[in-house]
Amino acid sequence: MNDLFAYTLRLGDDALISAQRTAEWIAAAPQLEEDVALGNIGLDQLGQARSLLQYAGSFDGRTEDDLAYFRDERDFLNVQLCELPNGDFAFAMARLLYFATYQHLLYDELRSSADETLAGVAGKAVKEVAYHVDHATQWVLRLGDGTEESHRRMQAGLDALWPYTAELFESDSLVQRLPAAVDPSTLSAAWTDRVLGVIDESTCERPSSSYQHTGGRLGRHTEHMGYLLAELQHVARSHPGATW
Amino acid sequence: MVTDAAILEAVGEVADPEVPVLTIADLGVLRGVRHEGDEVVVTITPTYSGCPAMDLIRHEVELTLRSLDVDGRVETVLSPAWTTDWMSESGKAKLVDYGIAPPSGAGPVMLRLSVRCPLCGSPDTTELSHFGSTSCKALWRCNTCREPFDHFKAI
User: Fold this and answer.
1) How do the domains of chain B map onto residue ranges?
2) Which of A91, B38, B68, B130 is the 20 to 30 A CA-CA neighbour of A196?
3) Which of B110, B131, B155 sits opposite A36 (nearest CB)?
4) Record's superkingdom (chain B) (predicted)?
């Protein structure tokens, strides 16, 4: 697999699978404004995924739709954090805080990538993701420093997802040898500072875990990924070539 | 032979389907025109990565080229990234008339300038949500006339 193709696919798959989970909240969020907010955030993620998958597909003649709808589970290179099923709203905000903070740091660095297309996508996306980080931060503070019940749920969400965060910063030979790539291990310290700063302010305890999940970048996913893809891909696979 | 200026003027009249008082020239979505051999290439840039209006805008620009008898295509570019700074002053004025508060100049999320109510003009307003009816707008409420309104957010 071409390095730039594989790297672009990692970023695109993170964005696509996050968009799918975020979109599941529409019409199920705790209030109307939140339905609208999560709809917008999911749309931003989907837009980023489209740009990235179009670019990845340009290396081997596939379209964004081929890549989204006609690959199997093992061919997806997203981190497992993105694919876990939606829990309660606090869980969703914990995930958005972890993921958007990572994406913001990543895109900010990627703006000066040697690859012009990736730099262009990142320059666009970094402004959008700044709003996602802010939204997640506001909710983590409000829920963590809210009632006894909201605090309990916020803590549970932060704790449950913590073992999926180290995977975001894994380095490997691909990101080390590809000049256009950002080595995510270089983002880890800044991410920890920012996220723990929000968690401290929210009055929640800092999560910790001796175990960290891994494997997404190699196509190894949780049991939930197949169900997610079934829903995402069902229509396109039942009616190949259909347009509307 | 249709001049570049005439092409830009004609395609610049294409309206944003979500905020129809604004043209793509007002918005700064229309970036330019160039020639590749005999072909004319019109470049446009999305306001947000996921902006669903882009497909329709591209289609309308293609139709406009055809009506001018120009052999051309439309290309979407992401860089440099669109910013509300590219919105024309006349575009901002049209937004107010339409009931949407225009972007207030400065970009980053953290910087808060007062947003004037587009309906009664009061500067006493509150943000209800960063996210509104489309990606490019936030939802606000006026504390004076109590009406909710959209604010085209600065990015």
Assistant:
1) 4-76, 99-152
2) B130
3) B131
4) Bacteria
Cβ contact, residue pair A120, B77, below 8 Å: yes
CB contact under 8 A, A40 and B131: yes
Judge if ipTM > 0.90: no
Band (pLDDT 50/70/90 cuts) for residue A148 is very high
- For A127, the closest of B52, B130, B155 (CB atoms) is B155
- pLDDT tens digits along B100-150: 998 876 554 545 567 889 999 898 999 888 888 888 889 999 999 999 999
pLDDT reported for residue B111: 52
Rounded CA-CA distance A211/A152 in Å is 22
Q: Which two tokens stand for residue A74?
A: 């093992």
The pLDDT-based confidence of B49 (bands split at 50, 70, 90) is: confident
- CA distances A177 to A2, A115, A174, A182, B88, Å, are 12, 14, 6, 10, 44
Compute the distance between CA of residue B31 and CA of residue A187 in angstroms, rounded to an integer.
34
Residue of A134, A36, A126 lying closest to B131 (CA atoms)? A36
Numbered residues of chain B with Cβ closer than 8 Å to any chain A Cβ: 46, 48-52, 77-82, 107-110, 128-135, 139, 155
Name the DSSP class of B44.
E
Q: Half-sphere exposure of B95 toward its Cβ, with a 13 Å CA cutoff?
A: 27
DSSP assignment letter at B82: P
Q: Say if the Cβ atoms of B131 and A125 lie within 8 Å.
A: no
> Residues A187-210: pLDDT tens digits?
999 999 999 999 999 999 999 998
Q: Virtual CA dihedral for A133, A135, A138, A139, nearest 10 degrees? A: -110
Q: Which fold has domain B4-76?
A: GMP Synthetase; Chain A, domain 3 (3.30.300)
Q: pTM for the complete prediction?
A: 0.90
A217 touches A10 (CB < 8 A): yes
**B108/A47 Cβ within 8 A:** no
Tokens, residue A84: 């876990």
User: Which residues in chain A have their CB less than 8 angstroms from residue B110's CB?
Assistant: 134
